[in-house]
Amino acid sequence: MIDLAIRRPVATAAIYIALFALGVTSFRLIPVEDLPEVEFPSLTVTAAWNGASPEALEAFVTAPLETVIQQVGGVEKVVSESFADQQGTGSNARIDVDFERETRMEFARLELSERINSIRDELPEGVVLDLSEYVPQEFAEEDERLLSFSLTGPYTFARLGEIAEEEIAPFVRGLPGVSAVDVRGAERREIAVELDRGRLEALGLRPEEVSRRISELSQPRAPGSVELDGRQFAIAVRTRALEVSDIADMIVLSRPDGPVRVGDLGQVRDQTEDPMFFWRIDSQPTISISVFRQSGTNVIQVADDVKAAMTELGSTLPAGVGLELLLDQSENIREQLTELRLRAIAAAIVIFIVLTLFLRSLGAVLVVFATIGFSVLTAVNFLYMGGFSLNLLTLWGLAWGFGLVVDNGIVVLENVERHRRGGAGPSDAASRGARQVVLPVLAATLTTAIVLVPFLFLQGELRVYYLPLTFAVGFSIIASLFVAFTFVPALASRVARMRDSAGVVVDSALTTGEAASSPTRPSEPFYIAGYRSLLGFGLRHPVLVALVCLGSLGGSWYLFDEHVSTGSYWSGFGGRGSGIDITISFPRGAGLERTDELVRSFEAKLATIDEVERFDAQVYPNYARMHAEFPDELEHTSIPVAIKDQMTAYSYGFSGVDVFVRGYGPSFYGGGSSPPNYSLQVLGYNYLTVQEIAEEIASRLTRFSRIRDVDPNANSGYYRRDREFEFYVEPNREALAAYNLPVQQLLNYVSSNIEGRPSVSRIRVGGEEVRYAVKVDGYREFDFHDLSDLRVPISSREELRLANVAEVGQRQVLASIRREDQQYERTVAWEFRGPVRFGDVVRNAVVDAMELPPGYRIEKSRYGGWTTEETTQMWVVLAFSILLIYMVTAGLFESLLAPFVVLFSLPFALIGVFLIFFYTDATFTRTAFIGTIMMGGIVVNNAILVVYHIGELRKRMPTAAAIVQGTLERVRPILMTTLTTVFGLLPLVLFASSQDENIWNALALATIGGLISSTLFVLVAIPVAYRYIVARRI
Questions:
Q1: Do 953 and 878 share a domain, yes or no?
Q2: Pairing relation of β-strands 178-184 and 189-195?
Q3: Inter-axis angle of helices 426-436 and 438-450, nearest 10
Q4: How much is the mean pLDDT over the chain?
Q5: Residues 877 and 1002 in one domain
Q6: 128, 47 in Cβ contact below 8 A?
């Protein structure tokens, strides 16, 4: 391949022109998004039951669903949670189904759907089921909307809703890349049939009979067919109502004195539905239009198309109607990508300057620098063909490889120059120089790439973050290997020769066992002379070198363990500025009006604060959420924090309601609330026993003075209560049988007499489908105390009290029920204020002191951190990475002992990692852990080159001389590759407002710290270790 590239320069040029064109094309076509979209071997089943408690939902819906789900082939784990919805209108359930890795998800989804449909008729009436792709918690917490607009104007909500749903939404849905358009806040049409109780009783009619007759209007009938001219034609009977008056004219009962129509029994009104929630911006009612993006499409392109379409639609809307852009997720992506692009450009400029200072030849610099461009473009081709997107992770992977991909080019180019300096012709020097370094360059590249292999076997949510990053880095360094042995040799002989700072030809940077061609050095760079003295001192005092290394490692670990906080995953600020969220939660039954009254008081308070730029409120019957934004000029000031404290103090003036005020964004980072950092999961087969164990753990934890905010029900979240109350009607079946009264008839009659929405009923009026509800007059004023005295008709002349055939009462129910593989689960979370190791000791002591019944267990984890399974995966990845590095180096050296010397560079690298996170006050997240593992594949390269070169020189000179000369000849290329990598990464972390602000900060910090410390220690400790470990045994 090398010789072919040198002999066929035109063909080589054509190949790279094609790679350039394909790379540019792929760069234009590849989808752009903020985070990767990865298909999980998981599905999610959701269930909603209006009016039911979580206990009822769990017993009659969740548990049966879990049973049939477990029967689906390939199911690995089932986790469910049944909880009261925030609106207070019923309960919801979420069932996450994890499948085995090799499961064909299209067939699994089909089988799961069939299993659910097989029991759908057995589930209670009114239960709504949905089957969807699994969304990880990290992404589920993010706003899924791409764009959100508000629609305002001098019209009623019904008219504005009509404009939004009939004129705007259909047009936007037809745009490429748009998956859905959601309109909220609009008043919807409803046909209300309010029956007179006295008339019903006099005629012996029940409300459900009227409802059944009305539903017949929307049921097309096909009584049969007729024959005409020898052909059969079906006959359709159309009973559709053309106007609302047709409903009032429907005959419900025939009597001798004339038919009884719906209008005779009460009123039929064409009205708007009672509002389910309110949404206001700056206290003004608003209709929102949310746009969702199709998976795999370009976020920026879709957003631009939608905004252009909205601008076009704005000119066609009725006078006074305006559209305002409220949310644009693409702006976040634009800002993040622009920032990363600028930092990558800065990194490239810094690398160019460093190469110029070392190589001192513009032609040589351009050759090496071109390897970056071609490697990145080749990697983009692979990413596009592999179905990946261009997101923050893959872009970071490409930028991270800038300093790595030049290493191979530098090694090849300098060895070619050595042969040219020795008198070889341009083509011969390029061929011999490139071929002689194939083995060490291949080994060094493999050690960097080999640590990525275990990442391919990550499972679950870890794949979302690190698999695309792994491929981006892997594609870059593999592409750099191809470029180094084709592009570089082809051009190496056609550029100006490199010269050192003294103006003489540079000695070989990477030899393959040959002695230096120049016996004398007209001038020796100062860093070589200084290093020569340091190396001699280290070889003479090996014990002192070992003590310094061990002391540095122990001291850095102490600082890291004592002062560096650890976290789970990067989440950043999502491009959002500073603001506050206010959450209001009432007990069930508070009602929309009461909740809205309190929200309006908070709105009035926010309206008096001049620093608040805008605020909005979403109000539900028992729950509300408010959001206030601050202008950009207040970022990183104390004003947002002061306003948060002011609103928190204001919330203390209200009782009987839970109010939680939370700040987010740069102004609040590092301050404000302190989230839990420890948690325990209690699992077992009896919910009450699990609850008792969790509460006992919480009781033990509260005895420690360093522990704060113990929550024995943390899996319910901040905004959910542990307990709720429900009012119930429990029919007495024996009493009902005595009166020959069916249970369903009783429930239908109760439903028609109380306020609320039963299962949705719809009818077509003209060409529009409209919801209708049949109620008995007075249902709005009907309260709980009237329920027991409700008169239930059992015949045309007889009725009885509801209390005679049913028990009516109030009871306490669970607000949230979580199960994993049909075991109940409860999470206990707390904050430990002190060093992590002390926190671990306290947690372990509490767990060890617990006596658990058979069949119950406690799982440990850091709150918000890795699960036990994820922790195991990462340690397996680390172990396999070290093993693979050992195997590659053992194959290179044909020795089982020499690779251990190379592996010494890993603990030396940890010294820098520990110190850089300590001095920058950055959080050591799991992204930093990943960066540390990847960094391990880089730092061993220097040790490999030193050990390999020493071994080659020992074949023709004494061991001591080989160690000194072999190491000295590696100082320049090691410094060059280290500096290009370090300075290439510095622009990614400099000038950041916080080292935890972006995902690339943690990765870059781990690489920079590890590479610097590893280089410093490798140049002294590795030669010493080689002399006293390897050389004495060979």
A1: yes
A2: unpaired
A3: 50
A4: 77
A5: yes
A6: yes
Rounded to the nearest 5 degrees, what angle is found at the Cα of 803, between the Cα atoms of 798 and 808?
A: 145
Residue 953, in any domain of the structure = yes
Does 444 score more than 70 pLDDT?
yes
- Given a contact cutoff of 8 angstroms between Cβ atoms, the answer to whether 706 and 841 are in contact is no
Q: Does any domain span residue 113?
A: yes
Share of the chain above pLDDT 90, in %: 3
Beta bridge partners of 664: 579
CATH number of the domain where residue 957 is located? 1.20.1640.10
Q: Alpha-carbon distance 136 to 138, whole Å?
A: 5
Chain segment 944-970, per-residue pLDDT in tens: 878 877 887 888 888 888 888 888 877
Nearest to residue 939, comparing CAs of 871, 840, 1019?
1019
Compute the residue count for the chain.
1034
User: Which amino acid is located at 864 in the chain?
Assistant: G
- Which residue's structure tokens are 């359930």? 93
Cα-based torsion angle of the residue sequence 123, 129, 133, 134 in order, rounded to the nearest 10 degrees? -70
Does one domain contain both 877 and 950?
yes
Q: Are residues 947 and 1026 in the same domain?
A: yes
> Of 135, 150, 176, at which residue does a domain stop?
135
| pLDDT higher than threshold 70 for residue 487 | yes
What are the two backbone dihedrals, phi and then psi, of residue 769, each rounded to the nearest 5 degrees?
-90, 125
Instruction: Give every CB contact of residue 752 below 8 A, 6+ residues apart in sequence.
Output: 195, 207, 208, 211, 774, 775, 776, 779
Do 926 and 1034 fall within a single domain? yes
Q: Residue 230 gets which letter from DSSP? A: T
**How far apart (Å, rounded) are the C-alpha atoms in residues 783 and 975?**
82
In a domain, 69, yes or no: yes
Cβ neighbours around 125 below 10 Å, total: 10
Please name which of 643, 695, 635 lies closest in space to residue 667, comparing C-alpha atoms.
Answer: 635
Beta bridge partners of 285: 280
Question: Picking from 171-175, 261-265, 416-420, 761-765, which range would have the lowest pLDDT averaged per residue?
Answer: 761-765
Using only C-alpha atoms, the chain has a radius of gyration, in whole angstroms, of 36
Residues 488 and 630 in one domain: no
Same domain, 486 and 634: no
CB 661 within 8 A of CB 644: yes
Strands 287-293 and 178-184: antiparallel
At 317, list the tokens. 């809307």
Domain CATH number, residue 615: 3.30.70.1430
Please give the pLDDT value at position 606: 92
Q: 461 and 406: one domain?
A: yes
Q: Which domain holds residue 634?
A: 579-664
Give the model confidence (pLDDT) of 773-823 as tens digits: 777 776 665 666 667 777 777 766 677 778 788 888 777 666 778 888 778
Q: Which of 602, 631, 664 is the last residue of a domain?
A: 664
CB 590 within 8 A of CB 88: yes
Residue given tokens 């269930």 in the structure block = 47
- 200-215: pLDDT as tens digits: 777 777 777 787 777 7
pLDDT surpasses 50 at 507: no
CB 687 within 8 A of CB 818: no
524-531 contact pairs (CB < 8 A, 24+): 525/500, 525/501, 525/972, 527/971, 527/975, 528/968, 528/971, 528/972, 531/968, 531/971, 531/1019
Please give the structure tokens belonging to residue 456.
């391919």
Per-residue pLDDT tens digits for 228-247: 777 777 776 666 666 777 77
Query: Domains in the chain: how many in total?
Result: 5
Place of tokens 């029940």: 206
- pLDDT at position 566 is 66
Residue 349 falls within a domain, yes or no? no
**Among 732, 880, 728, CA closest to 810:** 728
By DSSP bridging, strand 266-272 and strand 678-684 are: unpaired
Sign (positive or negative) of CA dihedral 630, 633, 635, 637:
negative
Predicted confidence (pLDDT) per residue in 353-412, tens digit = 877 877 777 777 888 878 888 888 888 888 888 888 777 778 777 777 666 677 777 778
- pLDDT for residue 600: 92
